[in-house]
Amino acid sequence: MKASRFFFAALAIIGAIASCGPEEQPGNNNGENGNENGNGGNGGNTEVQKSTECRLTAFTAHAGDFTIEGFVDQTDKTIELSYMPNQLAGLKAATAEVVISEKATISPDPAVAADYTGEGGVTFTVTAEDGKTSNEYTVYIAAAEVSVKVVKQWNKTYGQMGVAATTSNMCGLGFVDREHFATSDFNVYDLTGAKVGTLNVEGIPGFDVYSGQLGAMSNDENGVLVAFAEYNGTYKDGSNGAITEAYAWLDGWNAKPTKIYSFEYGCNYMSVSGDVKGDFILTFRTGAANPQMHHVIVFKGGVYYNADGSCAGTWHGPFIAHPGNDGCWGQLLSFFTANPEDGFICWDSLAAAEYGETGNASSAFYYYDSLSAVELGAAEEVPLYGQVTWGNWDSEGRLYQYGNFSTGHVRAFVYNGEKCIVACSGSWPCNWITIQKAENLVEDDPETDEVDESLVNYLLPTDRIDDAAQCYPCCAYVYDPATGTGHVVYAAQSLYVLAYDITTTVL
User: Which residue, among 200, 212, 208, 199, has the nearest Cα to 164 in the 3D structure?
Assistant: First the structure.
């Protein structure tokens, strides 16, 4: 009996072993006859089967402050980076993050900065775990196809907003950050036009030149407000007169402002460009002459004064060929960036006699490609064109088609990497606003000055603000990188405030 029990037990064990397939045996996870340590039943000489997967499935480029998601084409083994114009510079030294197959490697290292703008693109090799199988992916860049729209957000009267009538003929509003703007009577509003507070003016000596209001106002590219405070005081030589001090609200509209510039004499038609906490340009005028000289001060590194108290900026005095004393209202320069070699726009109020006409005056907007070219007398002056084309000369204007009244203002800025302007102009019965690209003039016939309208790129074709007769128009602009939106506020001063948003859709 003992022998029989042993015999059947042995058969049971043999049957159990025979019923185990190769996939269920612990030693066959990494090969047909191997075990989990790679040792086969023939003495451990069988190699591990390594992966041949070598795909790149995601590519994200970091170009300066921008992130660009690449489109991966597995068929052609290409990656397309569709960029906006303002992202191109960052692609000259961009890093990247990638997703590749498990256990694969990539070369060169995408985390190392590379120039993606060169001809032929940048090629990466993804090598599989086996060290033999690989794929090459080439990264190319392509300008994104976009649609830019300008939409009016609201139009409110000064009375509805509680804004006091403006006491100067200069710009009476400016952004204080990317979500709020201020008016010359110290009120602060949000982007809906609702009042949220009052501007902190602690430490400013006075405002009596403009009856308790700020003079000219502007803001930098980040929405830092800069404004002139003008008061009557005593000069260094003992005489009395208007003193101008420029203040910047570096820590926000409800914090004490910082004096960044001062000047004996009254200053007007001021504009700021760049970053007031870093590199920026301050421009203004002190009088009217033929030709007109402008004060252009270039600041570097957020330093406003030298140790001896003198201005730390570099002064330039460019002359504009058009007179500032032609019986009209003024002239203003607005630079596109903190670099004076990136060019600027001049708004000029023209008397009709200046260009051989009779009747009403007008506004003109001229593009200059660099400050140094103007100083050398070598700059090309390019007039821009509005769209006030209806009516006759006596009622609605001609020449450059911005209206038939000489008040105006301009703001130069860069949007999506392209130079643009907000052109503010007037007519006897109304005001106008035009938002357009700055380098857009193409003439069909120099003798007739006919313009091919199809080649002139308007973000906002000239828009009419009714019931704003003979106003002093002005505007402010700021870009919000979080939303990709350019915000514009426009004032037909003492009557209306309007808000516009510039947005981009990638097609």
Answer: 212
Question: What is the structure's pLDDT at 34?
Answer: 43
- Verify that 199 and 122 share a domain, yes or no: no
One domain, residues 369 and 428: yes
Spell out a b/e string for 75-99, using b for 16 or more CB atoms within 10 Å of the CB, else e. Answer: eebbbbbbbbebbbebbeebebebe
Cβ contact 408:473 at 8 Å: yes
Cβ neighbours for 179, distance < 8 A, ≥ 6 positions apart:
190, 191, 223, 480
- Looking at 143, 158, 176, the residue that finishes a domain is 143
Query: Distance (Å, rounded) from C-alpha 365 to C-alpha 347?
Result: 5
Q: Are residues 206 and 315 in the same domain?
A: yes
The DSSP element (H or E) to which 455 belongs, if any, is: none
Among 109, 143, 177, where does a domain finish?
A: 143
Q: Which of 491, 503, 494 is CA-nearest to residue 155?
A: 491
Say what the pLDDT of residue 31 is.
41
SS3 assignment, position 241: strand
> Tokens 């704003």 correspond to what residue?
468
How many angstroms separate the CA atoms of 249 and 227, rounded?
9
- Quote the CA–CA distance of 361 and 404 in Å, as a whole number: 6
122 shares its domain with 229: no
Same domain, 69 and 45: no
Are 171 and 139 part of one and the same domain?
no
Range of the domain at 12: 1-49
In sequence order, the β-bridge partners of residue 263 are 244
C-alpha of 59 from chain center:
26
The low-confidence residues of the chain, meaning pLDDT below 70, are: 1-46, 355-360, 389-398, 440-456
What is the pLDDT at residue 65?
86
CB 190 within 8 A of CB 197: no
Domain count, the chain: 3
Question: pTM of the predicted model, to two decimals?
Answer: 0.80
Q: Are residues 212 and 318 in the same domain?
A: yes
Residues 480, 476: Cα–Cα separation, whole Å: 13
Domain shared by 62 and 187, yes or no: no
Contact in structure between 435 and 502 (CB atoms under 8 Å): yes
**CATH number of domain containing 195:** 2.120.10
DSSP calls for 316-355: E-PEESS-S-SSS--EEEEESSS-GGG-EEEEEEEPGGGG
Residue 249 to residue 4: CA distance in whole angstroms: 103
Residue 5 has a pLDDT of 39
Cβ 500 vs Cβ 488: under 8 Å: yes
